[in-house]
Design goal:
Layout (H helix, E strand, L loop, with lengths): L2 E6 L10 H12 L4 E6 L17 E4 L2 E4 L1 H11 L10 H32 L3 H15 L3 H5 L2 H11 L1 H6 L13 H16 L10 H15 L9
Helix pairs in contact: 1-2, 1-8, 3-6, 3-8
């Protein structure tokens, strides 16, 4: 049975941009599961599966509906144990929790500032009207105040990747010899900005850039199938 993945997109449906939805898409592909991608707009999220969640991703797998990217990964691992593991064991699951916390607190905090205006500009008018007050409330700043921080966040972003950069000197993936869900967590963050923003945050020849390019090629080029922002 094909799994349905609900994911977020703006007016360009070829660029579903939510970092959390990309985690789930990569996790489903990692497991080798068939899935359909159903895009929804910001204001359509409350209608998904009868309002099961205020956010996406949400998946439907037969009679089961699961929300939240990490809970979905846990569900896939438990439900399909005979398929490639997303965690490689309990330790890998705990590691992924740490990676998610680091990504959310460090990378997402910067990317929310860097890409905020560009995300807004890629939404339909009715979604823009919701997006502005919701993000201002989340960030505790006006759009103009956030925009004033953008250049500084771009300039400082490479340094935020230092832990990943150093680690990649000794292993090709966060998961070790092969990618795990922890890789998809960080990939989702960088894929997000790749799809919505013209800011170029990764430098040629950097170990992080090489890792990201390998991620784009995983699972038949699933990540690369969505065109980068022009």
């Amino acid at each position: 049975m094909t799994i349905t993945l609900y994911e977020l997109a703006g007016t360009d449906l070829s660029r579903p941009f939510s970092p959390h939805c990309w985690k789930t898409a990569m996790a489903l592909a990692h497991k080798g599961l068939d899935f359909d991608r159903k895009t929804v707009s910001v204001t359509q999220v409350p209608q998904v599966e009868g309002g099961v969640s205020k956010t996406v991703p949400v998946i439907r797998d037969g009679s089961r509906v699961v929300a939240d990217s990490f809970l979905i990964a846990d569900y896939l691992e438990e439900t399909y144990p005979d398929r490639p593991s997303l965690f490689g064991g309990e330790g890998g699951q705990a590691m992924a929790r740490f990676v998610e916390s680091w990504s959310q607190s460090t990378l997402h905090a910067a990317l929310n500032v860097i890409a905020l205006q560009e995300i807004h500009d890629r939404l339909a008018p009715e979604d823009q009207a919701y997006f502005i007050p919701s993000r201002e409330a989340r960030l505790g700043k006006s759009f103009d105040e956030v925009a004033a921080l953008r250049d500084a966040e771009i300039a400082g972003f490479s340094a935020k990747l230092t832990p990943l950069r150093v680690m990649l000197k000794s292993q090709p993936w966060i998961g070790g010899s092969s990618p795990l869900f922890a890789d998809y967590i960080v990939f989702g963050a960088l894929q997000w900005v790749r799809l919505v923003s013209t800011a170029r945050l990764l430098e040629e020849g950097d170990a992080v850039t090489d890792w990201f390019e390998r991620c784009l090629d995983l699972h038949g080029g699933l990540g690369r199938s969505a065109p980068a922002a022009g």
